[in-house]
Design a protein that fits this description.
Rossmann fold, 294 residues, Ribosomal protein L11 methyltransferase, protein-lysine N-methyltransferase activity, single chain, Alpha-Beta Plaits, SAM-dependent_MTases_sf
Length: 294
Amino acid sequence: MPWIQLRVNSTEKQAEQVSDMLMSWGAQAVSFVDAKDTPIYEPLPGEVLYWENTVVVGLFDAEHKMDKVIRQLEKAAIFKNGVQYKLEQLEDKDWEREWMDNFHPIRFGQRLWVCPSWRDIPDPTAVNVMLDPGLAFGTGTHPTTALCMEWLDAQELSQSLVVDFGCGSGILGIAALKLGAKRVVGIDIDPQAIESSLANATRNGVEQQIELYLPKDQPASLQADVVVANILAGPLAELSGIISAYVKPGGLLALSGILESQAQSVIDAYAAEFEFDPVAIKEEWVRLTARKKV
């Protein structure tokens, strides 16, 4: 099906309203693009941030009456000083197939693979996690997830209890179970992540070994052999007391979602209770690993 793309220049305060307008006028999907390449690294839990200069992109069926959409856009009250926009024709492609073609099996360390369901498994004898891209964070393509997966692959997890703090898609907990962990507790602030983790655990046949909780329901006195937390530097530091308490004396901790410039501040938040290993770096992101003092 051919598509038309409408790009509307906006601000962070207007972006959500522009998105709602485009959807109400018939857009099949809406996305947000940074107009000036300004990075946003660290929203607070549950917060959605837009760029100061945000382009709101609406995708319309090519037969949609775009002249009517443009008239409505130009009359919109939020654009007091006029609106800047651009209409673009998109090449007629099988967009679902195009999207699927971008995801391939990925290897982490020596034993561990993440494989989309529509691809052949490269090594049936390896530890294979079957995972399709979804709305919850974590497919293995982001450097922070890859750093955690590589670390898990190198650990002896046999019969261990693992806490996946900020479980997202469940990829880290599922990988831990496939690598020999006995039980995983996953915690996330997003109910959709809990649903995604359960669905992915079921697809991988490990749903009986994983427990999933929103923060209000998370176990209070649990102590695990291994805790992994792939979230962001701010929440990692702010929640250090909660995360640290999940690690038993002598247990292991892996933290990621951290930029190189943020690593020391996160280390400082945990240093009283943990002895840290050398920092692992992938692109601009780091993974911190440590053992809890006895």
